[in-house]
């Protein structure tokens, strides 16, 4: 038995798991319908794939939600996991699930997949015969993804950086790297049986004024960490920045560099997809403004040539949307996308050149770290502040980088902290920032965070 | 002037915390930011460790009401008479009148209480208080 398999046996020997049968799971994946694999759907699609967000505590409510989405002609279904499961607190999840079932209320903010188990959940997946994407935020996702893959969920979102820096205060980062290495290896192993399992990184990060260079650096590093374990299908992602031009620039650069670095590290057989998140910041309270924001971001997704778009709803400012309003959002996005086929490629050479330079400079510093493995190089780089995201709650994040918007709404680096950027690539950003007379940087930041309100 | 700051309880809303940090630095304070998800005991430990002049606690989700009850006990345990205690943010879970919430937190042992007020307004108040005191 390999070391990995021994670790897997230990992980699934858990009091909340009822007899995890690896051989049966392997047979299931080997014979699973191609329609369950998003990697297959990417190959055969004729337009951008549309995926909403959503998850409820009980099986029945998720089943109804999926029914509603299918009626809106959804391409990819989401399964959002509750906060207790994300922190490996299966006891609390079990208790809250029981209360939700007894009283027909939602006591959890998502689906406690480990407690439901793969035998139950698989019935729903097989019934809808549609790709499902696992959305969570878990630093230690080992048991969760074993259960997800066994259920027929063949896209796994997350990564050691993107599910840690924006989601946790003090979960140890080195552990997160090792736990995610396990996830990558299991995904890689199952990828040999049928269509590949798709891994997706979470580009929105803390969703507050994230500079594109940092987003892209983190996307590329999580991609490389995944591919080096044998994953063959990977999605990089980013969210709407608030400037259409900056979105176009970001997408041109990330597409180009993802391919470049994947090939450079010997992964030319891996498929790389691009995912675009509709606006992830604070939403307006005016629902007609929300409709306009959602429509605009749909246009941008088409403009940037995304392979998948992840949608929001007009109820975003008010909490978790109803299944009807969520399904309506999917229908509207699909309707808009129908008008946007075959758009021309737009380029902004100067912006693309500088963003490429910034990404290359940071990556070079990461690769030059003296550690022996890539994950340790990345770990050291985060500790040193070579990678530093604005508005992270995590103690390891350097918290020195400050960003604000320029006159055109582009996110620019105001203070580079320890980012290993050259004077040239930093000045390109910095010189575009204009503060009005007497305006402090903090006032500007507050205004820029609320740009869509 | 040294300030210890952070978000109390299981609250992980980090955006305002970072803005407080930057604003304090801009005003020339030496900032020790404990970040989100910080317990009262940790705040007091940090004040002692850094020999801080000000403890500025913030809260967004309103949990502070439950988390700050024991401040008086901690203040009695150590000599913190020179430290200014301030709390600000959204100080209750439900809607509550300002005439009710401010005396409540003053009773807990805070010198300054800002409920749902502007960040700069609150920090102006702090600076005025410190000036008056010296």
Can you give a write-up of this model?
The complex is a heterodimer of chains A (453) and B (134). Chain A has 453 residues and is of the alpha/beta class. Chain A has two domains: 3-337, TIM Barrel (Alpha-Beta Barrel); 349-449, no CATH class. Helices cover 48% and strands 9% of the residues of chain A. Chain A contains 18 helices and ten strands. Chain A has helices at residues 3-12, 22-31, 38-44, 59-71, 83-86, 90-103, 113-116, 118-128, 142-151, 173-191, 212-227, 244-264, 287-303, 323-337, 349-367, 374-384, 423-430, 441-449; strands at residues 49-51, 77-80, 132-135, 155-157, 198-200, 233-239, 271-277, 308-310, 402-405, 411-415. In chain A, the strands form two sheets. An eight-stranded parallel beta sheet of chain A has the order 1-8-7-6-5-4-3-2, with helices on both faces. A two-stranded antiparallel ribbon of chain A has the order 9-10. In chain A, helix 4 (59-71) runs parallel beside helix 14 and helix 9 (142-151) packs parallel to helix 10 (173-191). The relative contact order of chain A is 0.12. Chain B contains six helices and five strands, in the order E-H-E-H-E-H-H-E-H-E-H. In chain B, 45% of the residues lie in helices and 19% in strands. In chain B, strand 4 (84-89), helix 5 (98-108) and strand 5 (112-115) form a beta-alpha-beta unit. Chain B is α/β, with parallel strands linked by helices and 134 residues long. Chain B has a domain at 39-51 and 63-78. Chain B has a five-stranded parallel beta sheet, sandwiched between helices. The A-B interface holds A 169-170, 206, 208, 390-393, 395, 399, 402, 440-443, 445-446, 449 and B 12, 14-15, 17-19, 21-23, 26, 33, 35-37, 119-120.
């Amino acid at each position: 038995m390999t070391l990995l398999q021994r670790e897997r046996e230990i992980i699934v020997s858990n009091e909340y798991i009822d007899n995890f049968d690896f051989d049966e799971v392997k047979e299931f994946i080997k014979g699973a319908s191609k329609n369950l694999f998003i990697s297959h759907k990417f190959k055969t699609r004729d337009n951008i794939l549309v995926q909403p967000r959503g998850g409820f505590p009980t099986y029945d409510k998720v089943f109804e939600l999926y029914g509603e989405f299918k009626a809106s002609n959804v391409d990819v279904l989401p399964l959002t996991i509750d906060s207790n499961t994300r922190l490996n607190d299966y006891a609390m999840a079990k208790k809250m699930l029981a209360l939700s079932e007894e009283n027909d209320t939602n006591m959890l903010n998502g689906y406690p997949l480990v407690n439901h188990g793969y035998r139950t959940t698989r019935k729903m997946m097989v019934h809808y015969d549609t790709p499902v994407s696992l959305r969570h935020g878990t630093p230690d996702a080992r048991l969760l993804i074993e259960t997800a893959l066994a259920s027929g969920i063949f896209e796994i979102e997350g990564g050691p950086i993107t599910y840690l820096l924006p989601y946790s205060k003090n979960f140890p980062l080195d552990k997160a790297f090792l736990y995610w290495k396990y996830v990558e290896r299991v995904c890689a192993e199952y990828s040999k049986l049928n269509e590949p399992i798709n891994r997706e990184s979470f580009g929105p990060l803390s969703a507050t004024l994230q500079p594109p260079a940092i987003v892209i650096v983190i996307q590329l590093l999580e991609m490389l960490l995944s591919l080096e374990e044998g994953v063959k299908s990977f999605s990089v992602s980013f969210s709407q920045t608030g400037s259409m031009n900056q979105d176009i620039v970001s997408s041109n650069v990330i597409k180009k560099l993802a391919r470049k670095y994947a090939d450079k590290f010997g992964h030319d057989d891996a498929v790389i997809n691009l995912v675009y998140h509709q606006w992830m910041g604070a939403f307006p309270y005016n629902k007609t403004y929300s409709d306009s924001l959602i429509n605009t971001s749909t246009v941008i997704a088409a403009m940037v040539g995304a392979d998948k778009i992840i949608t929001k709803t007009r109820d975003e400012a008010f909490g978790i949307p109803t299944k009807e309003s969520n399904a309506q959002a999917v229908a509207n996005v699909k309707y808009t996308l129908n008008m946007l086929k075959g758009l021309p490629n737009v380029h902004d050479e100067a912006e693309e050149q500088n963003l490429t330079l910034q990404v290359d400079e940071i990556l070079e510093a990461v690769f030059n770290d003296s550690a022996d493995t890539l994950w340790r190089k990345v770990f050291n780089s985060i500790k040193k502040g070579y990678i530093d995201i604005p508005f992270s709650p995590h103690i390891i994040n350097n918290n020195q980088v400050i960003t604000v918007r320029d006159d055109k709404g582009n996110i620019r680096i105001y203070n580079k902290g320890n980012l290993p950027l050259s004077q040239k690539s930093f000045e390109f950003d910095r010189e575009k920032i204009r503060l009005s007379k007497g305006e402090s940087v903090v006032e500007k930041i507050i205004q820029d965070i609320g740009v869509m309100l | 002037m040294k300030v210890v700051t952070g978000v109390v309880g299981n609250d992980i809303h980090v955006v305002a915390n970072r803005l407080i940090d930057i604003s304090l630095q801009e005003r020339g304070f030496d900032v020790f930011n404990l970040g989100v998800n910080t317990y009262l005991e940790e705040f007091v430990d940090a004040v002692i460790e850094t020999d801080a002049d000000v403890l500025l606690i913030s809260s967004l989700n309103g949990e502070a009401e439950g988390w700050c009850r024991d401040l008086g006990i901690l203040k009695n345990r150590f000599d913190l008479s020179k430290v200014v205690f301030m709390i600000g943010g959204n100080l209750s879970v439900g809607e509550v009148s300002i005439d009710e919430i401010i005396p409540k937190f003053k009773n807990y042992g805070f010198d300054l209480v800002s409920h749902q007020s502007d960040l700069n307004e609150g920090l102006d108040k702090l600076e005025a208080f410190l000036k008056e005191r010296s």
